[in-house]
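=== Structure Prediction Worksheet ===
Name of assembly: unnamed complex
Input type: mixed (protein and possibly other molecules)
Chain count: two
Listed entries:
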Amino acid sequence: DQQVKQNSPSLSVQEGRISILNCDYTNSMFDYFLWYKKYPAEGPTFLISISSIKDKNEDGRFTVFLNKSAKHLSLHIVPSQPGDSAVYFCAAGDQTGANNLFFGTGTRLTVIP
Amino acid sequence: NAGVTQTPKFQVLKTGQSMTLQCAQDMNHEYMSWYRQDPGMGLRLIHYSVGAGITDQGEVPNGYNVSRSTTEDFPLRLLSAAPSQTSVYFCASSYSPTAGYEQYFGPGTRLTVT
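=== Predicted Assembly ===
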């Protein structure tokens, strides 16, 4: 049973506009969340994370929002650039345990120039 | 630093054959792990290690063995390959075995079992 879900397999956005990628989770033990970006034929690379004690974390053009009551998080990319085109994975973990992650199925973002 | 390296990049096996996927990191990371990525499933944890000599099972461990004799290396063994093990395999490492530390991933091994 998928504990982390990304219900949109793909998203297309015009360059310069906002990209919003969504993620839902079911396990209430998860207390930190990460976004990874993946290009073809490469491994995932870390993008941004958030702990459950926060509801927002920003890093440059990337912002992650966490709604614990809804068990939902989102990644906002503003402004979107063609180089952002990749597959984005949401991941979650439990800070009381080892550094094991549960991943969503990914959303393929295409930024159109 | 080479980071996390994986060999081979591609492999084709026949059902029943055995092989070892190699993973090495040069960052002196305590934690290492193996994930598999399948279409529509995301990445799923196979096995992990919190330090040399210590390994444990992840979400989907059946059909795989691991060992961690050194900090640098974490090989994944398929004892008798099955078509269900056709997948892309990623090795990852992090500085600390405790949760919350950034994980660094290797480039992956694409395995096909016929």
